[in-house]
Design brief:
By secondary structure, the protein is an all-alpha fold. The protein has one domain: Amino acid/polyamine transporter I, CATH 1.20.1740.10. The chain is about 80% helix and about 0% strand. The chain is built from 16 helices and no strands. It is found in: Cell inner membrane. This is Amino acid permease. InterPro entries: Amino_acid_transport_2.
């Protein structure tokens, strides 16, 4: 993983388009790293509070929700007639300048709040580790959060090579330790009480959980860059190859994440999950505080730190791209100036949010999940009926499924307000 995906586009002579290549593996890992972040570390808390049945139904729906939605967004980006069109270019091409600006703004705000969440999550994770595992006094939050946010942003400013090295250094140990912890917790499993569910309560729990589930498995921030690279790398086969990479990414996510979620939920009671939510810490940080075990105490906060950092990098990349596209299209500023402004604004606001310390699950439920759903589920479905090259997907069951999930997530936003 020493080479970037963009650089690998020049290596067509060494790889067959029909087979699986290192290029494909690298993108699976990059998309996986983008998805595995704060959402997955807080998903067990949100689902665990609701009991066994929401967990089971979520497990059954997670793969189609993840794969079909991201496939639809990749198809949308690849439907452009422009060779190097990013997301903002595609929406203007298909929906016109006015609607394009609105959708592009929504796209930015589907990613930007996630960076705020990661600023809060990383600060709380490191503070909890220092206090509970190292026995230190808390560092003033304004200083701790400033250093951590500056560290993550500096990785982005270090250039593409540094960014890809960071992904390489983060994703492999993240996968290995997630698997280890999931298996290590099995002796602590306590099977939850299973009784006939109250249909009304179950429906309400599932409905309000949809935004968090959407958020937890989302790697939408990287799809625009991903689709563009596949277009350059695979030419006419870009759609088919993109779908194959996304399918393996989704399978990898579901297998690792569901094992992790089940293991965490079976190791804690619903009451303990409620305490974790109140403490505003990830499930791994809470497990480290509950179990007097050196492996969990050390690896739990470490996984939380690595997961949030790797996902932050992927989402910052998407937010940076969309911000630059919006500003350069609406003003006379050049891309370099827009980029500097965007980085400065995002750094300051992430830092402020990390100091304020709002509820992470509350932000997922009320902001990020529903807005991601508009971009990831609803907008590509509308495009199927508007864009001629996508009309062939009309009337398919998968199209209706994606639309319904998106509408459920958006309606949960309206209900929470």
């Amino acid at each position: 993983m020493s080479n970037s995906p963009e650089a690998m586009t020049l290596d067509m002579s060494s790889a067959s388009r029909g087979g699986w290549t290192q290029h494909d593996t690298q993108w699976v890992l990059s998309l996986f790293g983008t998805a595995v972040g704060a959402g997955i570390l807080f998903l067990p808390i949100n689902i665990g509070i609701g009991g066994f049945w929401p967990l089971l139904i979520m497990a059954l729906l997670a793969f189609p929700m993840t794969f079909l939605a991201h496939r639809g967004l990749a198809r949308f980006v690849l439907s452009s007639k422009q060779d190097n069109a990013d997301f903002t270019d595609v929406v203007e091409e298909h929906f016109g300048a006015g609607a394009g600006r609105l959708i592009s703004l929504l796209y930015f705000f589907s990613i930007y709040p996630i960076l705020l969440i990661y600023g809060v999550g990383l600060t709380n994770t490191v503070d909890s580790f220092m206090v509970n595992q190292l026995g230190m006094e808390s560092i003033p939050r304004i200083a701790l959060s400033g250093v951590l946010v500056a560290f993550m942003v500096s990785l982005m400013l270090g250039g593409e090579k540094l960014l890809m090295r960071a992904f390489s250094a983060l994703v492999y140990p993240l996968v290995a330790i997630l698997l280890f912890l999931s298996l290590y917790l099995i002796p602590n499993w306590q099977m939850p009480a299973v009784s006939a569910p109250d249909i009304g309560e179950l429906s309400n729990t599932l409905w309000l959980s949809v935004p968090v589930i959407v958020f937890s498995f989302s790697h939408a921030a990287a799809i625009s860059s991903f689709a563009n690279v596949q277009r350059r790398h695979y030419k006419s086969e870009a759609v088919a190859k993109s779908e194959k990479i996304l399918k393996y990414t989704s399978l990898m996510l579901i297998l690792f994440v569901l094992l992790f979620v089940f293991s965490c939920i079976f190791s804690l009671t619903p009451e303990q999950m409620a305490q974790a939510k109140e403490a505003n810490v990830s499930v791994l940080s809470f497990l480290a505080n509950v179990y007097d075990n050196p492996y969990i105490a050390l690896l739990g906060p470490f996984v939380a730190f690595v997961a949030i950092t790797s996902s932050f990098l992927g989402h910052f990349l998407g937010a940076r791209e969309s911000f630059n596209g919006l500003v350069t299209k609406q003003t006379k500023l050049g891309n370099a100036t827009a980029d500097k402004i965007g980085v400065a604004v995002m750094f300051i606001t992430i830092w402020i949010c990390a100091v304020i310390n709002p509820s992470i699950l509350g932000m997922m439920e009320a902001i990020s999940g529903p807005i991601i759903a508009m971009i990831l589920f609803v907008m590509p479905t509308i495009a199927i009926y508007k864009v001629p090259s996508l009309n062939k997907y009309k009337g398919r069951l998968s199209t209706y499924f994606v639309l319904v999930v998106g509408l459920l997530a958006v309606s949960a936003l309206l209900f929470s307000w």
